[in-house]
């Protein structure tokens, strides 16, 4: 796999206890690929609450400390629900490379979410690689993406 960082982007990463092993492994992949990785925890043996972990990554992006985010929890579901409560965050729970591609091309997802108990390591690496190298398509999708943050105002 080649996760190469051509744009020198920073990725904020967090997990609860349901995804620590996958988080650690993907952090290594990202660092080997030249990404600036902010590992916001948790670490092996610790317990964490997924809404709080989601907030760490959401705030890192919204405050300009990271361009993208990677979140993991057991299923990926709880942490994606929590992250999407933040205006400006578009967190996509991806189970395969098609999800990853579409989340970037159509939804301009800025946070990738994976399930530590549902997605195997090699599949997760493939998802991450596709998600990082796929650009937002723009065009007709711009107005739709903008609607997301405006809809509850
Ligand atoms: C933690 O046990 C688990 O509930 C959490 O990681 C996640 O799967 C929630 O959606």
What do you see in this structure?
By secondary structure, the protein is α/β, with parallel strands linked by helices. The chain is built from six helices and five strands; from the N terminus they run E-H-E-H-E-H-E-H-E-H-H. It has a five-stranded parallel sheet with strand order 2-1-3-5-4, with helices on both faces. The chain has one domain (10-147): 3-Layer(aba) Sandwich (Ribose 5-phosphate Isomerase B, Chain: A). The chain starts with 9 loop residues before the first strand and ends with a helix. The site of D-ribose has 8 residues, from helix 3.
Key features?
153 residues, Ribose 5-phosphate Isomerase B, Chain: A, 43% helix, binds D-ribose, single chain
Mean pLDDT: 96
As a percent range, the share of helical residues equals 40-55%
Return Rg in Å: 14 Å
CATH topology: Ribose 5-phosphate Isomerase B, Chain: A
Total helical elements: 6
Work out the number of β strands: 5
Across the major sheet, the strand order is: 2-1-3-5-4
Distance between the termini: 42 Å
